Amino acid sequence: MLMESVAWAQGTGGGGSGAGTLLSLVPFVLIFVIFYFLLILPQQKKQKQQKAMLEALKKGDKVITSSGIWGTVTNLGKETVTLQIADNTKIKMQREFISRVRADEEDKDA
Q1: pLDDT tens by residue, 53-78
Q2: Residue ranges making up the domain that contains 71
Q3: How would you list the strands of the sheet with 80-86, edge to edge?
Q4: Against a cut of 0.90, is the pTM above it?
Q5: Are 82 and 74 in contact (CB under 8 A)?
Q6: pLDDT tier at 39 (50, 70, 90 boundaries)?
Q7: Which residue from 94, 47, 105, 43 is spatially nearest to 69, judged by alpha carbons?
Q8: Would you tell me how many other CB atoms lie within 10 Å of the CB of residue 63?
Q9: Is residue 97 part of a domain?
Q10: Rounded CA separation 98/62 (Å)
């Protein structure tokens, strides 16, 4: 009987349990904020830059694909790009697989 009354008294919690619950959520909120600024925000910025680069593609741009193929844009479709990778070799691929536009200095290495 004595144990039941002690357990009942400890289980009711009183008025302090709301503040304790709120205080226990603070670490989770801080972790989310840290993840947002270190992971999510930079990734969104990178995606916006990639989208802007793909929309700005034009004929004659020298690009590198995500698979490492170097080529020159010869034709642009809504979702596709035709690249000339050799004198008589052209490939058609999706725009999203263009990784970046090459700089003129990079041509000297090839």
Answers
A1: 999 999 999 999 999 999 999 999 99
A2: 57-108
A3: 89-94, 80-86, 70-76, 62-65, 98-101
A4: no
A5: yes
A6: very high
A7: 94
A8: 20
A9: yes
A10: 10
Share of the chain above pLDDT 70, in %: 79
Do both 26 and 39 map to the same domain? yes
Nearest to 68 by CA among 95, 94, 99: 99
Short-list 58, 57, 66, 76, CA closest to 97: 66
Where residue 45 falls (left for φ over 0; alpha for ψ -120 to 50; beta otherwise) is alpha
Q: Give me Rg for the CA atoms of the chain.
A: 29
Cα 62 from Cα 71, distance rounded (Å): 6
Alpha carbon of residue 97 to chain centroid:
15
Same domain membership, residue 100 and residue 89: yes
Domain count, the chain: 2
Same domain, yes or no: 38 and 25 = yes
Tokens of 41: 């925000």
The residue type of 98 is I
Q: What token pair was written down for 44? A: 């969104």
